[in-house]
Amino acid sequence: MNTAQITALMFSSILSVLIFWIFKEMGRRKEKALPVIVINYLVCMILGNIILGETHLLRPSTLTKEGVWPIFFLGFLFMVTFLLMAESTRESGASLSAVASKMSMVIPVSSAMVFFNEAISSQLLIGISLALLSVGLITYQSENTGGFSWLLIAVFIGSGGVDLSMNLIKHQDYSGWSNMQFTTLTFFGAAVAGLLYMLWQGLNHGFKVKIPRETLFFGVLLGGINLFSIYAIYHALDMFKSSTSVFFTVNNVLVVMGSVIVGIFYKEAFNLRKIIGLIAAVFALILLG
Known about the structure:
Blueprint: H1 3-28, H2 33-52, H3 68-92, H4 94-102, H5 106-115, H6 122-139, E1 140-141, E2 147-148, H7 150-171, H8 179-205, H9 213-239, H10 244-265, H11 272-288
Antiparallel strand pairs: 1-2
């Protein structure tokens, strides 16, 4: 790898780890995840349109573009998965949430064999097996609940569903959508999903209009990092045009390892089973890449 590739890789990985760090800090401060995540997606949508400039999406013609509704409703899945990630980071820690999230690449990889007739290799099958083993090891919380952490399993399924949905939409080859337009519209859908859920909560439990300063701060901070993390990934993919598998493998490993460091900083507990799960996750990512 050259200097430009290493820089792009490190930048995208650090921003992804920062998202888990913010979730962990929110948990420490007992900050409610839902309003922060809704503000985050509103910030992403606004910043995205500002960056798009003359090609912004805030115009009637956007509603008639091919693929607008599948891309928009993908944001609903984004919203649910991000909320699950925040809650799992609070409950199980940054490191285990990162593993559950990154191991979800098993779902789009496996689905690609079915939907797109991609080749099956022994290396791929071993990687998938290790990934499933790692998820099993980290989600089994015998010392706490006597069973599996269904929240971590939900993160695994939700993250995989997001990746699979994006892959299916991308394979539709909708014309006229730049990467930033695609991302901004998805964020807009996520913001609408969050607002609708908050409206439903308000109708059932009463409205609370006041937004604490700390909630607003975390929402804006998370929104900026979230948007630029996507930007950083697209930039890194440009740097790794002929070796995207190398980028995704190293990036995912760095995010998992970075999240482990965050976990150690916050004194998360690591027993032998979880350590074996983390090691299996790293080898799975290398094989799947």
